[in-house]
Write a structure and sequence with these properties.
This protein has 2 domains: 3-90, Orthogonal Bundle (Hypothetical Protein Yqey, Chain: A, domain1); 99-149, Arc Repressor Mutant, subunit A. It is 75% helix and 0% strand. It contains 7 helices and no strands. The longest helix is centred in the middle third of the chain and has 24 residues, at 49-72.
């Protein structure tokens, strides 16, 4: 079992013992998503820590989007619940890059790839996503690449 998955299970047990309903429900949900990912495809396999982090990122993004949707519909209680679940998941993810750090990484990638305009956006995005390695959402990276190339 991977370290991150093991940590999730250990934290789930602790949350259950501590009767922390929010944390228990959130960790159960994410472990279910990890298990579903492991059995998806032609044969079952164990996910690496990076793949488990990918599942965590997807689930955290779902929570953010759901919170925004509930808030715009005037359902503040559900929005607060989704936001709280997202915060629990954020504790298992690497810290997000600040805007200045992201801009510096994108500028470095543009220099390295020799990009000169929007026609090179695909090449820059591929290299930037690799350099960022999950520390910033793709939409933030794309916006910064567009800003610097445009």
């Amino acid at each position: 079992m991977t370290d991150l998955k093991d940590r999730l299970r250990t934290d789930l047990t602790a949350a259950m013992k501590g009767r922390d309903e929010l944390r228990t429900a959130t960790l159960r949900m994410v472990l279910a998503a990890v298990s579903a990912e492991e059995v998806a495809g032609k044969e079952a396999r164990e996910l690496s820590d990076d793949e488990v982090q990918g599942v965590l990122r997807r689930e955290a993004k779902k929570r953010r989007e759901a919170a925004e949707a509930f808030a715009s519909a005037g359902r503040e209680q559900q929005a607060a619940r989704e936001q709280a679940e997202g915060e629990v998941l954020a504790g298992y993810l690497p810290a997000q890059l600040e805007d200045a750090d992201l801009a510096a990484i994108v500028a470095d990638v543009i220099t390295t790839t020799g990009a000169s305009g929007m026609k090179d956006m695909g090449r820059v995005m591929g290299a930037a996503q690799t350099a960022v390695a999950g520390r910033a959402e793709g939409s933030r990276v794309a916006a910064e690449v567009r800003r610097q190339l445009g």
